[in-house]
Amino acid sequence: MAIRSIVEVPDPRLREISKPVEGVDDELRTLVADMFETMYEAPGIGLAAIQVGVPKRVLVIDLQEPEEEGGDPVKDPRVFINPEILTTSDQEVPYTEGCLSVPDQFAEVDRPDRIRARWMELDGKVREEEIEGLLAVCLQHEMDHLEGVLFIDHLSRLKRNMILNKLAKQRKVAA
Description:
Peptide Deformylase, 27% helix, 9 strands
């Protein structure tokens, strides 16, 4: 396993549409292991393959719910290969989103609060499930990456430009 570099805006690779995965092999298993290690190190709760420069329809999520007050988070790593959303609820909920590719920036995005999704798991089995809450929001956010869409694309032009300008200033100060 290795920690990979996370691609950040304005890198054009983040606008690439990812290609479907043809099958599970050792190269894919290594990519997934690296993605988890990279995500945990960042730290984050979701990561799409394109965020580490690999344009494949793969994403990993681990909401890492705390076991109890002050305890270590319980890891629940999930892998989604070639995910697709089959249905969405009519009701949208606002959720404050951030992204490892848009570091330290957050904004409220409205998304359906419930979805039905289908994907392949690392063992090659296809799974279909009704998903709600934070997992549904996170899955939709990461699936956007597979289409070259960032969470800031769901914002008004003014809010998006404010975030990008703030990010540019932070980079200038750090340099």
